[in-house]
Amino acid sequence: MLDWSAIDTVLLDMDGTLLDLHFDNHFWLEHLPKRWSELTGIAETEARATLKAEYAVLHGKIEWYCLDYWTRRLNLPITALKREISDKIAMRADTPAFLQALQQSGRRIVLVTNAHPDSLSLKIELTPLATYIDELISTHEFGVTKEQQELWQQLQARLGFDAKRTLFVDDSLPILHAAQQFGIGHLLAVANPDSQQPVRQIDEFPAIIDYRDLVADILAAPVIAN
């Protein structure tokens, strides 16, 4: 599936790629509408409909991922509301073995997420992700998202990676297309980002269901000298 001898840098999404997307889907689609209704008196059906419409307008933009934006828009403590269901934050079962193999191989491992820094901090606090990863980056640092070419330009300027020798893994097909447009040489989609949802059929990119299927090939490839 992947030529590991041609990969030096691995860029990894977080939600749906390393972590189970069930937490995020449950928060934005179920918990937030319910709590907005309870805290303000808005009918829950109205809250759901309003949020669904706003999500559609903002999807892919920095505001969609921005907890500060939603805190102002709804006048709610979004990070605190996330903590109410933080027991749902979990790594994918296949993530540790994958990250351990990447570490052993000597490849540079960078997390690149559209998540707001407060959301990133919460998940780093509650999972062991940081122990496996060389650098943690929220695209909020750049003010643009992975859907936009400006992000990839700034990310390359910061990290200095060779695009042709870089692997990028994400569960979002629009984001994978943006990385492909920029010239990232190796792309991998996640077919099962949410453990509570069916596996998706993905034809545009190589797709993975279980990272453990990659471990032997990672470890068999030449070790990258740091």
Automatic annotation (TrEMBL):
Enzyme Commission no: 3.1.3.5
Hydrolase recorded as keyword: yes
Alphabetized GO MF terms: 5'-nucleotidase activity
Enzyme class: hydrolase
Domain of life (superkingdom): Bacteria
Record flagged with keyword Manganese: no
Keyword terms, alphabetized: Hydrolase
UniProt name for this protein: GMP/IMP nucleotidase
Species assigned in the record: Rheinheimera tilapiae
Gene from which the chain derives: yrfG
